[in-house]
Amino acid sequence: MEEAAELESSLELSYSSVGGLPPARSRIFKIIVIGDSNVGKTCLTYRFCAGRFPERTEATIGVDFRERAVTIDGERIKIQLWDTAGQERFRKSMVQHYYRNVHAVVFVYDMTNMASFHSLPSWIEECKQHLVGSDIPRILVGNKCDLRSAIQVPTDLAQKFADTRSMPLFETSAKNPNDNDHVEAIFMTLAHKLKSHKPLMLSQPPDSDKIHLKPELKPAMTCWC
Amino acid sequence: MSLRRPPPAVIAPHDSDSKKKRKVEDIYQALNSDPSDVSALRRMAISEGGLLTNEIRCKVWPKLLNVKTDDLPPPPGKELREDSEDYQQVLLDVRRSLRRFPPGMPDEQREGLQEELIDIILQVLQRNPQLHYYQGYHDIVVTFLLVVGERLATALVEKLSTHHLRDFMDPTMDNTKHILNYLMPIIDQVNPELHDFMQSAEVGTIFALSWLITWFGHVLSDFRHVVRLYDFFLACHPLMPIYFAAVIVLYREQEVLDCECDMASVHHLLSQIPQDLPYETLISRAGDLFVQFPPSELARAAAQQRAERTAASTFKDFELASAQQRPDAVLRQRFRERLRGEERTKSILTKPRTNRFVKLAVMGLTVALGAAALAVVKSALEWAPKFELQIFP
Asked: What is the mean predicted confidence (pLDDT) over A135-157?
């Protein structure tokens, strides 16, 4: 039960960690996180928003929401992560509402579960249907890379797939504390990309001259195009 | 098993103690009459405190569901898990559902119960191939397991799954979505301002999805609250959980209106359910709303809700637009005026104020509700022909 309270407080945590509420007109980046059941969507979003791995998570029913305020190049930005249920029946009729106005999509698979990797094409296809004609950034995240002996999805296979879909690939672990910075870097990279990409929702003009891709990101990453 | 011996009286001070004691006696009297007085049991499951103890629940829940306790399904065979295509998903969900078990329960015991939980779910699915597993179903089943034990839970859950939960277990969630569409019309009847605010925020109804399909088992951490609600829902119309969801939103009116009017803020606020809700009051209100605005009257509004949703979803830049500028707002307004006009002529109870609910005498309400729970069975048929009627004997 404590854990529940912890999970639920991630929003407040994120605010307090940057000191007070963000200014009223801060831009919002809305990112939807999708993938099979149990690949770690909740843990990844929690890791980014609360800064640590939740001890217990339950199946997400419907859509959960986490948020964190960050500062990028002096601008306050709210990053909203929409964490979705993995079971197929939910995504078919429930989740579409939450595809609306998203600025980026994060596809997650479990590196220790080949089936979750094989599901990616159908997730990608479905995403396409909801975001017709949209060229929003999409990234691919392989989670649970800390379980080295159980890896079923080799990096080169995932990289090949990512290349054919023109998506950057990240392999990470929401659980491994050493990877904390890494999860952070993935979402921050995405946020930088979004910031430089185009004006989003509110009035401020984008800083189109600044594209911050972190070159030190490991182990795998391709271009954004 | 003898039903004639009442359990030891609950030790609590004064008034509430004697009230409770009297209720326990009433319940046993209704149980022991031949045949059992199910209407009385239903009323007592709804009225203040519900069925009071798990010992009583073991006896009354089967009556409410019309399940014969001497004719339970046989224990599952060994092949159960191998044959099931849902096994992997069920396993994942049950393994992660640690919070549903009493804190402090030894791991070994909990793990044993988790195995039983898996078996119950798979057995019900196996015996009813028309039913489809959904994430959250395990949150309902675990409640029955913890209260009545594996064998009886299997029978109760099977009945529940082919009746109250039937729509959630379709191949798709379209019917679940349809039931969620009742939420906003109920809110609109009571508090149009709140309704309009939520519509402007485009919050949708998914924040209430887990409430509905788990009967709040997924979101309430105190097990006593969960079983109290189950008493209520088992005694009522299958749509009662959506009325209860509406009542929670209405109860949090001020918090919602204080929110920024956008999907994320309102969704976040509402999906975090407060753990200290005044359950008895809210149960009364939900029952009252059900009587005032039965599903048959809301069916049209719910259908309209669906149409609006589709229309609204084609409108892209909602974050930039104010409510007045949105093309569908006009339609919505016109529709609501029409509906309200009809309602007003029909009942002086339209748009009741909150404090009026609190003043309602619990007994008066529950009598009305007991009648309502029976009376509206017909209307259930209108919107979902699948609900069979033997559940309301």
From this structure: 94
* pLDDT digits 0-9 by tens, A167-180: 999 999 999 867 65
Chain A: residue whose CA lies nearest to B180: A94
Comparing alpha-carbon positions, the chain A residue that sits nearest to B132 is A89
Q: Looking at the complex, does the CB of residue B228 fall below 8 Å from at least one CB of chain A?
A: no
Q: Does A171 touch chain B (CB under 8 A)?
A: no
| A126 or A44, greater pLDDT | A44
ipTM of model:
0.79
Region of A60 please: left (phi>0), alpha (psi -120 to 50) or beta: beta
Are B99 and B60 spatial neighbours (Cβ–Cβ below 8 Å)?
no
Least confident among A16-20, A29-33, A57-61: A16-20
Q: Which two tokens stand for residue B170?
A: 């379709």
* pTM above threshold 0.90: no
The three-state (H, E, C) secondary structure of B28-84, written as one string: HHHHHCCCCCHHHHHHHHHCCCCCCCHHHHHHHHHHHCCCCCCCCCCCCCCCHHHHC
How far is it, in rounded angstroms, from Cα A186 to Cα A174?
A: 11
Chain B: give the shortest CA distance to residue A168, in Å: 27
Dihedral of the alpha carbons of A5, A174, A111, A103, in degrees to the nearest 10: 90
CA distance B215 to B91: 21
Could you tell me how many residues make up chain A?
225
